[in-house]
Design brief:
This protein is mostly helical. The chain has a single domain, classed as Amino acid/polyamine transporter I. It has a two-stranded antiparallel sheet with strand order 1-2. The radius of gyration is 22 Å and the shape is globular. The structure holds 4-fluoro-L-phenylalanine. The site of 4-fluoro-L-phenylalanine has 15 residues, from helix 2, helix 3, helix 11 and helix 15.
């Protein structure tokens, strides 16, 4: 029986690519997780939601919600070697469950509409740093320096044509990489660049921690004030945890479908979640001391990263070179994450609609470009329209992070926790009995069955005011 299943798996997999090794699996998955979420979104949300209390809730969400859902997605992906819609056919699940895949495809689009715009800002900052736009900051007073960087950010985002062009460039880079089909290239790029990004963030951290505002910055980041935990803080932390780990929308089903047979799925998810969270915390430790030293507003919103990083580099020898390197590496991290986002609709179209892979890439990127350009910039044609009190940028972010990902995560938890045979889960997570990890599997299944869905429901009902 097992043989038949495994043979089948190999036959249907012949034309599907897999990552080449365990290390490649780790770096590719981390490449999807680490991105603008750590460097841009994490500090923005920590700033807007009151600091340490948010960070604490975020950690709990990673542990009890993000990791169990990630393991479940790996399970679905590797056991079916299929896209997030086709996977449920292969598992012989009721058609209803395919909704997880469809939600994932729409989630990828919603995220990319605004994510590619922010990636465009990052690309434009590389260019500004090369041009020397930040060179004179170091000679200004603290107050003037803060004002100068803020006005550079405002004009970057508010310009009429350039943010759209930069968004197009960011999407074109993703297209070129996907076209070249360099799965190997992607693996190699991530392996080299992740450690570099890590090193640079540590350098910024060290400099930031020696600024006068370091103590205030750290206490903002780590001191927990329980009165700050409101329903909307809970929902934002939950949404961020899913967004950060790229779970709840089938990205990890897709990546899991490329994993090697002997990969330890539980260990991989812990390693990825731990490394990813470490990057976010380090970025927080780099940014908040600057905020307090320069008297900036922690809750300033999406400009926080762009308004603080140039300031910290203005206080370091060779700061401008490091600033260029920082935005370059951030652009790479954003690009790796975008590859995984675009991969979801692309594999879906290629496998479910039998479309040529290249055509799927073009269609997906075009949709992302057209909707993104028409809506998310202040100067976009629909840029000034607000729905439910939000502009399109915030609305797409809210719909994806706070609705699609948690709902997708909930359905995944119910499907694997309650609709899948325990023996099948054990078989996949223990690599056919090769790993001696039955305790870990049991803990995972218990959390997934009871705690994950319950917490998700509580946060949800709480945020819409029902409890
Ligand atoms: N995890 C990425 C980040 O934090 O930047 C964003 C992301 C990638 C979200 C892939 C969702 C996803 F499926």
């Amino acid at each position: 029986m097992f043989y038949i299943k495994d043979n089948k798996r190999n036959l249907t997999d012949e034309k599907r690519e897999t990552f080449s090794s365990g290390l490649a699996v780790f770096f590719a998955t981390l490449g999807s997780a680490v991105g603008l979420g750590n460097i841009w979104k994490f500090p923005t949300l920590v700033g807007m939601n009151g600091g340490g209390a948010f960070v604490l809730v975020y950690f709990i969400c990673i542990l009890l919600l993000g990791i169990p859902v990630m393991i479940s997605e790996f399970y679905i992906g590797r056991s079916t070697r299929s896209n997030p819609v086709g996977a449920f056919n292969k598992l012989k699940a009721k058609p209803f469950w395919k909704i997880i895949g469809y939600l994932g495809v729409s989630g990828a689009l919603f995220i990319m509409f605004f994510y590619s715009a922010v990636a465009g800002w990052v690309y434009s900052y590389i260019f500004k740093a090369i041009k020397g736009d930040f060179l004179n900051i170091s000679s200004l007073s603290i107050h003037q320096a803060g004002e100068t960087v803020s006005s550079i950010f405002e004009s970057t985002v508010g310009a009429s044509i350039s943010p759209i062009i930069w968004q197009a460039i960011a999407l074109a880079v993703v297209g070129i990489i996907l076209f070249a089909g360099v799965k190997n290239g992607i693996e190699k790029i991530t392996k080299t660049l992740m450690p570099l990004l890590f090193t640079l963030i540590i350098i910024i951290c060290i400099r930031s921690l020696t600024l006068e505002g370091a103590r205030d910055g750290l206490s903002f980041l780590f001191k927990v004030d329980f009165s700050k935990i409101t329903p909307s803080v809970l929902l934002s932390a939950l949404g961020l945890a899913f967004f950060k780990l790229s779970v709840g929308m089938g990205t990890m089903i897709t990546y899991g479908s490329y994993f090697t047979e002997n990969n330890n799925l539980i260990n991989t998810s812990f390693k990825v979640a731990f490394s990813d969270t470490l990057v976010s915390i380090l970025v927080g430790m780099a940014i908040f001391p600057v905020v307090f030293t320069f008297g900036l507003e922690p809750g300033a919103g999406p400009g926080l990263l762009f308004n603080t990083i140039p300031l910290v580099f203005s206080k370091i020898p060779f700061g401008n070179v490091l600033l260029i390197a920082f935005f370059l590496l951030t652009a790479f991290a954003a690009t790796m994450a975008m590859l995984s986002l675009v991969e979801v609709p692309v594999v879906f179209m290629a496998e479910e609609w039998d479309l040529d892979r290249k055509k799927s890439v073009i269609i997906t990127l075009l949709i992302m470009f057209i909707v993104g350009v028409l809506t998310v910039h202040p100067s976009s044609i629909f840029g000034h329209i607000t729905l439910f009190g939000k502009n399109f940028f915030d609305l797409f972010d809210f719909i994806s992070s706070n609705l699609i990902l948690p709902i997708g995560g909930f359905l995944i938890a119910i499907f694997v926790g309650h609709k899948t045979k325990k023996a099948d889960i054990i078989k996949e997570l223990s690599n056919n009995g090769e790993l001696d990890n039955s305790n870990k599997i049991n803990i995972y299944i218990t959390i997934l069955k009871y705690i994950t869905p319950l917490l998700l429901i509580i946060v949800f009902l709480n945020s819409i005011g029902i409890i």
